[in-house]
Amino acid sequence: MRQVCPRPERPSLAPSPPISEPSAQQATDTGYVAVGEGHASARSDSVSVSDVASAPVIPLETILHTRRHLAILGEPGAGKSTTLQFIGLSYALATAQQPVERLSITRPAVPVYLRLPVSASTITQQTVREAMVAEVRDRLQCSAAEAEAVLRSWQEWPGVIILLDGLDEVPVALRVQVRERIKTLMRSGIGRVIITSRPSVLLHLGGLDEYTLKPFEHFDRDVLPYLKGWLRVLKPDLQAQVVDNVAQDVMTKLRASPALRSLIGNPLLLRLIVQYFVTTGDIAWNRADLYRQWVTEAWARARWRGAAATEEPHYLIALHTLAWHLHAGRDNTETALQTVLRTSGLAADDRAAADLLHRLQAQTGLLLRLSTGQDGLAHVRYVFAHQTLREYLVALRLQQAWQRGKHRTWRFLQPRLHLPEWREPLALLVGLLTESEAQHLLRQILHAKSSEERLLCRDLLLTANLAVESGYIHSVWESLAPKLARALRREHLSKETAAVLARVGKPAVPMLAQALNDPSVEVRRAVVQALGLVGDAAVPVLAQALNDAQPEVRWAAVASLVAVGNAAVDTLVQALGDDDAEVRRVIGQALLEIGDAAMPALVKALADKRANVREAAARALGESGYAAAVSALVQSLRDENPWVRQAVAEALGAIGDAAAVVALAQALNDENVWVRQATARALGRIGGAAAMLPLTVALNDENPWVRQAVAEALGTIGDAAAVLPLTRALSDEHAWVRRSAARALGQIGDGAAVPALAKALSDGDVQVRQQVVEALGCIGDSAAAAALVKALGDTNAEVRWTTMKAFEQIGSRNVATLLRAISDGKWQFPWQDAQAWKIGNQAIEAIGSVFNGGDTGKRMIATLALGETGNSAALPALERALRDTDLWVRRAALEALAKIGDQAVIVPALERALRDTDQWVRQTAAEMLVKIDDTAAVLPALERALRDADQWVRRTAAEALGKIGDASAVEALQRALADTESMGAAGRSRGARKDRRCVGGGGAAKGIGRYRSMGAAGRSGGARKDWRCVGSGGAAKGIGRYRSMGAAGRSRGVGEDRRCKSGSITDTVTE
Question: Which residues form the NACHT domain (predicted)?
Answer without folding.
Answer: 68-200
